[in-house]
């Protein structure tokens, strides 16, 4: 039903079901993780009116789990990217995993997903530093990168002394440089 992805690691799709409505993923070597992606696999949707709150848990200095609410996933929002690097020193919040005896080792953090009513999800407040990334901000980032690269390329082409010749092709090799053009002859 769910998947979990950390950069540089294999995708996890086999969540450990710890209750009828609760699932966890283990995150070994959690100290090196900055972001985690939680997503629905698309095979089983949430029942009507339900969604999943997403929690991050890491062991405190006594080895006890500290759970923090990151956000949620729903049928209408089937994936989310969460920044967890700043959460390891924060304080825990109320969570539905408290009374459960979930097996863990000291160097392993966990992502927990609790299936709940959408009305209840709307009333929850995720920890502020989890900074859910949205598709809109990623799209905006991509557009800005493309625009900047394109403008840089055009400036290089316009600023260079180019003599049109059908047997030569000009490619910008340095941006903003007066002599940033390389000439390639067709052979």
From TrEMBL:
- Please give the InterPro entries that the UniProt record associates with this protein: Hikeshi-like_N, OPI10
Q: Where is the Hikeshi-like N-terminal domain?
A: 6-127
Mainly localized where? cytoplasm
Keywords carried by this UniProt record = Cytoplasm, Nucleus, Protein transport, Transport
Q: Name one GO cellular component term.
A: cytosol
Which terms in the Gene Ontology molecular function aspect does this entry carry?
Answer: Hsp70 protein binding; nuclear import signal receptor activity
Q: Which Pfam families match?
A: Hikeshi-like_N (PF05603)
Presence of the UniProt keyword Nucleus in the record: yes
Provide the assembly information. Answer: Forms an asymmetric homodimer; required for binding and nuclear import of HSP70 proteins. Interacts with ATP-bound HSP70 proteins.
Family that this chain belongs to: Belongs to the OPI10 family.
Record protein name field: Protein Hikeshi
- Native organism: Lynx canadensis
The major lineage groups are: Eukaryota, Metazoa, Chordata, Craniata, Vertebrata
């Amino acid at each position: 039903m769910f998947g979990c992805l950390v950069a540089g690691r294999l995708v996890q799709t086999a969540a450990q079901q710890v209750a009828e409505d609760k699932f966890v993923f283990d995150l070994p070597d959690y100290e090196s993780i900055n972001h985690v992606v939680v997503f629905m696999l698309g095979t089983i949707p949430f029942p009507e009116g339900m969604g999943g709150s997403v929690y991050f848990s890491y062991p405190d200095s006594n080895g006890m789990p500290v759970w923090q609410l990151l956000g949620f996933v729903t049928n209408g929002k089937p994936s989310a990217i969460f920044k967890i690097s700043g959460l390891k020193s924060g304080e825990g919040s109320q969570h539905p995993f408290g009374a459960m005896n979930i097996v863990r080792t000291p160097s392993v953090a966990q992502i927990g997903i609790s299936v709940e009513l959408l009305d209840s999800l709307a009333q929850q407040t995720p920890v502020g530093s989890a900074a859910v990334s949205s598709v809109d901000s990623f799209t905006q980032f991509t557009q800005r990168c493309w625009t900047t690269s394109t403008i840089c390329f055009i400036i290089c082409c316009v600023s260079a002394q180019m003599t049109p010749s059908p047997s030569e092709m000009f490619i910008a090799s340095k941006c903003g440089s007066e002599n940033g053009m390389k000439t390639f002859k067709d052979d």
